[in-house]
Amino acid sequence: MITSLRTNSDNPDFQKLVVALDAYLRILDGDDHLFYAQLNKTDSIKHVIVVYQNGESIGCGAIRHYSGNTVEVKRMYVLENQRGKGIASTILNELENWAKELSYKKCILETGKKQVEAIKLYHKASYTLIENYGQYKNMVSSVCFEKILEK
Fold this sequence. Notes:
Elements: E1 2-7, H1 12-29, H2 33-39, E2 47-53, E3 56-67, E4 70-78, H3 87-101, E5 106-112, H4 116-124, E6 128-130, E7 142-148
Parallel strand pairs: 4-5
Antiparallel strand pairs: 1-2, 2-3, 3-4, 5-7, 6-7
């Protein structure tokens, strides 16, 4: 049975999944990993989703205030042996719903060009490609997306 929990970055299951995510990204990012690692700090994130299957944490995601009515999707991850089951879509959908409940109007996010599965997920979820923003502006290995949240 799959369940989800709304929590924050203090959640030990979230922290455990982030360790796995960072290990995965260390391989994908290569020489760029140190730059990205500094942007992915998880302290003080107030809005985190952790997904469980039979009591075991298998995926996570978070949103963080970016500016005005915009929230940034962060730390999306599903254990490799759980991929392809729609779990990431569930997490993303729950994050979007939470953002709407908090009166945000738009989600933005960044992912690496090498994260092909993530890019497919965001296209499937109706995110549109945008110019790289903020700290990702000059990162050629990054791709950024946005989605206007409907009521």
